[in-house]
Design a protein that fits this description.
This protein has 628 residues and is mainly α. Among the domains are: 203 residues; 137 residues, no CATH class. The chain is 61% helix and 1% strand. It is built from 24 helices and 2 strands. It has a two-stranded antiparallel sheet with strand order 1-2. A hairpin with a 6-residue loop joins strand 1 and strand 2. The radius of gyration is 30 Å and the shape is elongated. The protein starts with 10 loop residues before the first helix and ends in a 17-residue tail after the last helix.
Length: 628
C-alpha cells in the first residue's frame, strides 16, 4: 500500500462515472472527480506557470487527459486545465511521452467520436486548440532533433492523421477549428517525413522545392536533424525578438533585414511563415517598431495575393489556397497583441492602427457594399474589418471571408475577456460598438456564424461526448487565448539559433542525475563561480593592470555576440544586394544606350525624309568648290 500512487483515474471509474443512474452514487463520484481535479491543478502548477516543488507535468497531463473522458463539467474543466498548462509549460525532454499520449488521445476523439456527430460541438474547438499546442511543441522538439527515438509514437499517429486529413468538409465552415487542423497536418508532414513511406499520405513533400528559386549564394540555416531548413524570415523574426528581450541597439538593423525577406511569407510551405508571425507578434507585444514591421509584412502579403493582376499571373504558377491559414493566424496574433501588449499605445495601435484615431472611431465599419471597394490602408483590426467587409460576397476569395470570420470571431472573445476590466472600458466599448454594427448590418451567413460559434465556445452549452447540455461553473477560469506559448516558442528558438549567446541551453536532453544530485551540483557550481569571479588588488602586480571598465555582464556579452551574428548575415545579404544592384544598373545603362541609339535613328530618319539629307544635324556638307 505504501507504493500505491496518491490517486489514479482508472477505466472502471470513468465507466462508472459516465453510466451511473443512482443520484447518491453520482454525487460521490462527482466529489471524487473534483478532488482529483484539485490535485491535478496542484501538479500542473497552474498558478505558478508550471514551476514548483510539487509540479510533475507528464503525470498530471496524463491524469487530466483521463479525467477529460468524464462527462459534463469535469470534462470541461479538465480540458481547460490541460490547455492552460500546455500554453505556459516549459520545454523539457521528459515531456515527450506524455505529449505523444495527448496527441494520440485527442486525435482519436476527433476522428472516432466527433466525426460521427451531425453538428459542431464546443468540445471540438477545445480539442483542436489543444492539438495545435501539442503539435507546436512537438515541432520545436523536432527542430532540436529529439524525435529520432520516438518513431513508433509517430507511426501510431499515422492512421488518425490520415482520417483527420479527410475532415475538410466537416470543418471548412469553421476556420477557427480548420486552421488548427491544418497546422496539425502540416506539422505532421514534416516531423513524420522520415518515418512514413516515400509517398506520404499527405501528398508529396514540399521541402525539396521550397528553396529552388533562392540564389545559390544565399546561405540557408540548415539543421542536420531531419535535414529541415529554416527560412531567413523566421531566423530574423527570432533575432528581432532576441533584440527586444536584450534591449539591443541592433533591432532596427534586424527589422530592415527582415523586411528584405518579406517575399518568403508567400512560400507554399507556410509553417515557417506561421512561426515567424508568431515570434514577431510576441516581440510586437513589447515594441512598437516590431508591431509596425509585423503589420507591414502582412500588408505586403495581402497586396501580393489579393492583387488582380498578380493573382491572374500567380494562379498559373503558384497555388495560394493555403494563404487563408496565414491570414487567420495573423488575426489571432493581432487580437492577442490588442489584449496582452505591454503598453496601451501598442494595444490601441493593434486595434485602430497608426492613422488618426478620431477618424477611425467615427466610422468603425462601413456596411454599404454598393460603394466602391476600399483599398487596404493598414492591417490593424478595424482597418482589416473595413477592407474585408467591403469585399465580402458569395463568390469572394477564401482569404476575404476567412479573414473577416477570424476578426469577428476573435472580437467576440475579446469582449468576453475584457468584461469586468475597468481599465479597458474604452477598448471594450469600441469592440462592442463594432460587433453591434456587424450584427445589425452584416447579412453574410458565414460572418453571423462566426458570432454564434464564438458564443458557443465561451458558454460551452453542449458537447458530443455527453448526451445533455452543461453549463460551465462560474468558478472555472476559462482560457480563451494562449498567453504564454508565443514567449516559450520564441525563447526556445532563440536558444536554438543563438546558442552561443546564451549560457542556459534548453533542458531538452534527459538528465542523467537525480534531482537531489542536481541540486547539490548547482550549489557547488554557484560556489565555484563566486570563487572564480572574486579577486583582489593583491592578485595583480600593480593597480595599473586592473581593467578600466567593469566586467561585462551576461546581457552585454549576449548583445555583442548577437551583433556579430547579425552583422555576419548582413554582410552576406549586402553582397547579394550589391550584385543585384550592379546587374540592374548595368541593364539600365544598356537599355538607356539602346534608347538613345533608337531615338537618334528616328531623328535621322525624319530629317532625311524632310530635307532629303543624310548628314547629321551638326555637320556641314562637304564643299567641293575651290578657293582662290
Amino acid at each position: 500500500m505504501a507504493n500505491r500512487p496518491l490517486f489514479s483515474i482508472t477505466k472502471e471509474f470513468i465507466l462508472k462515472f459516465n453510466q451511473t443512474q443512482n443520484p447518491e452514487e453520482e454525487e460521490k463520484l462527482l466529489e471524487q472527480a473534483r478532488r482529483n481535479i484539485l490535485r491535478c491543478k496542484r501538479k500542473l502548477g497552474l498558478k505558478t506557470l508550471g514551476s514548483g516543488k510539487h509540479v510533475h507535468l507528464p503525470a498530471a497531463w496524463t491524469e487530466v487527459m483521463y479525467l477529460a473522458q468524464c462527462k459534463g463539467e469535469i470534462q470541461d474543466e479538465a480540458l481547460n486545465m490541460l490547455y492552460a498548462s500546455l500554453d505556459h509549460a516549459c520545454f523539457e525532454y521528459d515531456h515527450l511521452p506524455a505529449l505523444f499520449f495527448i496527441a494520440e488521445s485527442l486525435l482519436y476523439r476527433l476522428c472516432c467520436d466527433a466525426f460521427q456527430k451531425a453538428y459542431l460541438y464546443s468540445v471540438e474547438i477545445q480539442l483542436a486548440k489543444i492539438g495545435y499546442l501539442v503539435f507546436l511543441r512537438l515541432f520545436i522538439f523536432f527542430l532540436h532533433g529529439h524525435l529520432e527515438s520516438f518513431k513508433q509514437h509517430l507511426l501510431r499517429l499515422q492512421p488518425y492523421l490520415y482520417a483527420l486529413s479527410l475532415s475538410g468538409a466537416s470543418y471548412h465552415k469553421y476556420p477557427n477549428i480548420f486552421s488548427n487542423v491544418q497546422f496539425i497536418l502540416k506539422t505532421s508532414e514534416i516531423i513524420c517525413k522520415r518515418e512514413l513511406p516515400s509517398e506520404s499520405i499527405f501528398g508529396p513533400m514540399e521541402n525539396k522545392e521550397r528553396y529552388e528559386n533562392i540564389d545559390s549564394d544565399t546561405e540557408n540555416l540548415q539543421f542536420s536533424q531531419g535535414g529541415y531548413e529554416v527560412n531567413h524570415l523566421l531566423w530574423h523574426c527570432v533575432a528581432a525578438w532576441s533584440c527586444v528581450q536584450n534591449d539591443s541597439p541592433q533591432l532596427n538593423n534586424v527589422l530592415q533585414h527582415l523586411i528584405f525577406h518579406k517575399t518568403q511569407l508567400q512560400r507554399k510551405c507556410w509553417l515557417d511563415s506561421a512561426l515567424a508571425l508568431l515570434v514577431l507578434g510576441e516581440a510586437a507585444k513589447l515594441n512598437m517598431a516590431c508591431l509596425n514591421a509585423l503589420m507591414n509584412l502582412v500588408k505586403d502579403f495581402l497586396f501580393s495575393i489579393m492583387s488582380v493582376q498578380n493573382r491572374e499571373e500567380a494562379c498559373k504558377v503558384n497555388d495560394f489556397s493555403w494563404a487563408w491559414n496565414i491570414v487567420y493566424l495573423y488575426t489571432t496574433i493581432l487580437t492577442e497583441i490588442c489584449l496582452y501588449a505591454a503598453t496601451s499605445d501598442l494595444r490601441k495601435t493593434a486595434l485602430i492602427g497608426f492613422c488618426d484615431c478620431k477618424s477611425s472611431l467615427k466610422n468603425i465599419l462601413p456596411m454599404d457594399k454598393s460603394e466602391e471597394q476600399l483599398e487596404l490602408r493598414e492591417t490593424s483590426i478595424l482597418s482589416l474589418l473595413e477592407y474585408f467587409s467591403s469585399k465580402i460576397s458569395d463568390s469572394c476569395d477564401q482569404v476575404v471571408w476567412t479573414g473577416y470570420y477570424g476578426l469577428v470571431h476573435n472580437l467576440v472573445k475579446m469582449s468576453w475577456e475584457l468584461q469586468g476590466d475597468g481599465e479597458e472600458d474604452g477598448l471594450r466599448n469600441t469592440i462592442w460598438q463594432t460587433l453591434q454594427k456587424i450584427k445589425d448590418y452584416e447579412t453574410d451567413a458565414r460572418i453571423q456564424n462566426a458570432i454564434n460559434v464564438a458564443q458557443a465556445e465561451l458558454s460551452d452549452t453542449s458537447d458530443p461526448f455527453t448526451r445533455y447540455s452543461t453549463k460551465v461553473p462560474s468558478n472555472v477560469e476559462k482560457e480563451v487565448f494562449s498567453k504564454y506559448i508565443g514567449w516559450r516558442i520564441s525563447s526556445a528558438l532563440s536558444k536554438l539559433f543563438f546558442s552561443s549567446i546564451d549560457v542556459h541551453l534548453l533542458p531538452l536532453k534527459k538528465p542523467s542525475t537525480k534531482r537531489d544530485q542536481m541540486k547539490h551540483l548547482n550549489k557547488k557550481q554557484k560556489s565555484i563561480k563566486r570563487r572564480v569571479l572574486h579577486f583582489t588588488v593583491r592578485e595583480h602586480p600593480s593597480v595599473s593592470e586592473l581593467p578600466m571598465f567593469p566586467y561585462p555582464d551576461f546581457f552585454t556579452k549576449a548583445d555583442k555576440e548577437l551583433a556579430k551574428i547579425i552583422d555576419h548575415h548582413w554582410q552576406k545579404e549586402l553582397m547579394i544586394r550589391q550584385k543585384e544592384d550592379a546587374i540592374c544598373e548595368d541593364k539600365e545603362l544598356k537599355d538607356k544606350e539602346l534608347q538613345e541609339i533608337k531615338h537618334f535613328q528616328e531623328v535621322m530618319k525624319k530629317r532625311e525624309e524632310k530635307l532629303h539629307k543624310q548628314t547629321k544635324p551638326y555637320e556641314l556638307p562637304l564643299r567641293t568648290e575651290e578657293f582662290h
